Amino acid sequence: MAGFAIGQEIKKGSTRNSPARKPWGAIVMFLSPVMLYYLIFILYPILATFFYSFHTIEATGGKLVTTFVGLQNFFELFADDIFLISVKNTIIWSIVGPLMEMLVATLLAFIIFFKIPFSNFFRTAWFAPMLVSGVIVGLVFKWIFNFDWGLINVSLRAIGLDDLALNWLGRRDTPLWVVIFVHFWATFGYSFVLLLAGLSTISNELIEAARIDGASEPQISLKILFPMLMPTFITVLILSFMGKMRAFHIVWVLTNGGPMHFSETVATYVQKRAFGWSTLDLGYPSAIAVFWFGVVIVGVSLINRWLKTRVEY
Amino acid sequence: MNLEALEKIRINLRSFKRLSIKKILLTIGLLFFTVLVIIPFIWMILMSFRTTAEILNDPYGLPIEWRWNNYWQLIVDPKIAFYKYFVNSTIITIGALILTLILSTLGGYGFGRKRYDFKFRTPLFTLLLFALMLPPQIMYIPQFTMIAQYGLLNTYWSLILLYAATGLPVSTYLMATYFSQLPVEMEEAARIDGCGDLRMFWQVMLPLARPAVATIILINFMHFWNELLLAVTMNTQPEMRTIQVAMMNFVGEHGSNYAIAAASLVTSMLPVLILYIILSDRFIEGMTAGAIKG
To answer: Is residue A49 part of a domain?
Structure first.
C-alpha cells in the first residue's frame, strides 16, 4: 500500500510523447532480470507457501515427501493452545504498540516542528536505535532487565521501590510488556521521523496566518496541523502495525517466546514449528503463515477504512 | 556576502529571544528523555572497555582505565575467533549488495524512464511493490526448501541470494523514482550522437543517479548486516554463522564474560554506526523515502 501511488505517478509522466516504435529489446534487457529474480525468489515462494499449507511436507532420507491433507492444518490451528497464546500476544502487541508509538512520536514531531534548540541532535539520537540490530537490542535489554543487577532494578532499588524490582523476564505477566517496551524503544524514532517529514510538507503560510490571528502553538497543532497530517498519520500507523505483526529479531533474542510461551508471538512460533522443534513438517507452519498473512491484510485494510472514513466525513 | 552573514546572526538572535521559559523547560525535558534513549549505547560502550571483574563488582561504574584488551581478544583469541563471523558477514553483505545493485539499477532504469513504458509496465511495478508489505514468514519456508534442494544451505550463496531478494523491491522503487526525475534532454542529445540503450544507461544516466545508488547501498547494507531470521534458518553450521547469529550464541556460551560480550556487540555495531554518524541525513532520508509517499 505504501507505494502504489508511485506507479501511477510514473505512468503519468510517461504517457506524454510515445515514440512510433517501442525499444522492446531494451525493455526486456532492463526489466527481465529484476522480474525474473522476483518471480523465482519472492513470487514462487509465496505461492508455494499456500500450496504447502494444504499438505504435510516431511523430509525423510534427504527427500521431501508431500502429502495432501486438505484443510486439516487449518483445523489444527484452532486446537493448538500455543498458537492461540501467540495470536493473543501478537494482537495485544499490535494494538498497544502502535498506539503508544503514535502518541509519543506525534507529540515529539510537533515539539520539534516548532523549532526547539538541539532539534537536529534529538532527531539523530532518537532515530539511532532503528539502526541497531535486533540481536544487540535483545541482548542489551536482557541485561537491562536482569533481576539482580539490571539497570531497571538497580534504579528502582536506589529510590527505595524494592517491591517493584521484579524478575521481569521470568514471570508469566511481564515478559510480553518488556518486549513491547523494548520494541517501542527501537522503533519510535522511525515513526517520529516519518511524521516530522509529513509535517514539513504543510505550507508555512497557513501556520503564519493562524499565528497572526493569535492562535497558540498547541491550538495550531490540534486544529490545523493534525487534520492535515492525517494521511501521513494513517500510513505511519499501518507501517507500525505491520512492524509488530511480523517482528521477530527482538523477541527471539530477548525472551525467545518464553518463559513457557508467555511472550510467544506468531513470528517466533512459525520459526519454532518449522525449524526449531524436530516435528519435521513444513506444512503446518506454512498454514500458520498463510492464516497470519490473511490477518495482516484484514488488519491493514480495517485501519485504512476506519480512519479514512473518519477523516473524510 | 557580509550583509547576509549579519542578517543570519540577527535572525538567530531573534529566535533566541523568542525562547520562552516554557520552551527552555521543554528542551531540558527532551534532553533528559534523550539521555534515557541512548543510555543502552553508552553503557554498552563503557562496559566494553572494562574487565568482567570490574563489571560484576559495579555494573554501572566508569572504566578505571581505557583498555582495548577486550577488542584485541576478539581479534586474536583462537578460541573466540570472532573475526571469522565478521568476515562471513562482510562477504555475504557485499555479495548481496552487488547483486541488488545490478538488478535494481537496471530495473529502476527500465521502470523509471518513459522511453521504456508499455502496457503492462505499471501492473508489473505494482506487483513488485506488493512485496513491500509482505511479512517474511509468508515466503521463507519454501525459500528454505529451494535453497536446500540446490545444496546451498550453509554456503554464502544462500544468504546472498535471499538477501538480494528482500532488498530488491525497495531498491528498484527508489532507483525508479530517481531515474524518472532526470531530464529527457540529456538522453535525447546522447541518442542523436548514436548512443545505444545500454551505453546510455551505463555511461550517462547511472553516473547521474549516484545519490540514489548511495542511498540504496546504505539502507541495504544496514538491513543485510543486521538480518537474523534468514541467517538462523539457512546457515546453521557454526563456521558459516553471520555476525548476528554468532553474537547470540556467543553471549549464550560465554554468558559470564560480560566484557568480551559487550566488546563483540560494539564491534558488530561499528560499521553501521560509523556510517550513520557521518551520513545520518542520507540514512534517514533513504529509510523514509519508501514509506512516506502514497
So the answer is: no
What φ, ψ does residue A58 adopt, rounded to 5°?
-120, 140
Q: Please state the three-class secondary structure of chain A as a single string.
A: CCCHHHHHHHHHHHHCCCCCCCCHHHHHHHHHHHHHHHHHHHHHHHHHHHHHCCEEEEEECCEEEEEECCCHHHHHHCCCHHHHHHHHHHHHHHHHHHHHHHHHHHHHHHHHHCCCCCHHHHHHHHHHHHHCCHHHHHHHHHHHCCCCCCHHHHHHHHCCCHHHCCCCCCCCCCHHHHHHHHHHHHHHHHHHHHHHHHHHCCCHHHHHHHHHCCCCHHHHHHHHHHHHHHHHHHHHHHHHHHHHHHCCHHHHHHCCCCCCCCCCCHHHHHHHHHHHCCCCCCHHHHHHHHHHHHHHHHHHHHHHHHHHHHHHC
- Rounded to the nearest angstrom, the minimum Cα separation between B34 and chain A is 7
* pTM for this predicted structure: 0.87
User: How far apart are the C-alpha atoms of A178 and A128, rounded to whole Å?
Assistant: 20
Q: What is the ipTM metric for this complex?
A: 0.87
Domains, chain B, ranges and CATH? 2-75 (no CATH), 82-292 (1.10.3720.10)
Best probe of the B interface among A28, A101, A135, A185, by most B CBs < 10 A, is A135
Contact list, B232 vs chain A (CB under 8 Å): 252, 271, 275
- Minimum Cα–Cα distance from B226: chain A residue: A133
The residue assigned the cell 497530517 is A229
Amino acid at B34: T
For A208-241, the pLDDT digits (tens) are: 888 888 888 888 888 888 888 988 899 899 999 9
- The residue in chain A having the minimum alpha-carbon distance to the alpha carbon of residue B222 is A131
Q: How many domains, in total, are found in chain A?
A: 1
- A36 domain residue, yes or no: no
In a domain, A65, yes or no: no
To the nearest whole angstrom, how far is the Cα of B52 from the nearest Cα of chain A? Answer: 14
Give the CA radius of gyration of chain A: 24
Return phi, psi of residue A63, to 5°.
-120, 150
Say if the Cβ atoms of A10 and B112 lie within 8 Å. Answer: yes
Tell if the CB–CB gap between A49 and B141 is shorter than 8 Å.
Answer: yes
| Residue B76 Cα, gap to closest chain A Cα (Å) | 22
Mean pLDDT to the nearest integer, B108-128: 92
What distance in Å separates the CA atoms of residue B45 and residue B75, rounded to the nearest whole number? Answer: 17
pLDDT in tens, A22-48: 889 999 999 999 999 999 999 999 999
Structural domain including A277 reads 74-312
Provide the grid cell at B267.
564491534
Instruction: Identify the CATH number of the domain in which residue A97 sits.
Output: 1.10.3720.10
